[in-house]
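Handout, page 2. Input:
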Amino acid sequence: MKIKKFGIALMLVATVVMGLTACGSKDSSGIASTEAFTGDYVVNADYVKENIDDIILVDARGEKAAAKETIKGAAALDWQTISKCADRVSGDEGFGCILDPADLATVLGEKGIDPEKEIVLFSSNQEGWGEDGRIAWELVNAGYDDVKIVNGGYNALLDAGFETQEGGVALDAVTVTVDSLATEHRIDTDELAQNYDNYKIVDVRSDDEYDGATDYGEAKGGRLPGAIHIKYTDLFEENGTLKSNDDITKMFTDAGLSEDDQIVTYCTAGIRSAYMQLIMSDCGFKNVKNYDESYYRWCVTQDVEK
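Output:
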């Protein structure tokens, strides 16, 4: 009888444990843990720590943020520095687009962004617009073979115990050659307008922007006609790390997307949408183009939906 009761007790304990496991354990922050995101473009803080001597670490939040505090040994780079921003304003043709190849090569060379090295970028994820993803997207389009972004960004590196400093390091200038820019993952306004019905359009902006707010100087509020709304911020857990591949992929498929679809991502200036393009690629959605002129330009030249 005692043996029988002991066996029943064991079964009850096992059932409780299985139930807790199925619900997901929680980490010290109280957030349900999930399988870590993996992909060709994403690494974690431990990877950075293990490879710090062999990589170029870049603070994609830019020089102003880095001047206050950044990771020790990191260089700082603003996405605007390698984009067409200095000689035009939002809404102009080409505003925010990647610099032309020769100009891009010059700037990257002066900044010491060596194409022979692995480039690892970080930003502030939900606190920013995914600037690390935008710069990574530009480098990939320029022919850089080994580019990564840090899962969890700056806070993840701090949590991993990285030391900090005020101001980014100045890297030695290098020779960079950019013969041409790849086209398979970017699209301009003319091409999108001419072939609009061939694409599923994904708006990664906030709810307010999608509903018509003009918080960033847009010429008018609204969205691209028929756009599917998948927010950039929905990629992340509460602690700023990416959700699991399965959870993110489910979010895409629940929105009506399939891996075979021709997809265009956009936001206000092509920053958050560049990040989204990389993550979609890592989740198996390979036919995705980032519209880097994005809503700033579209709302000036084309009809919008409200």
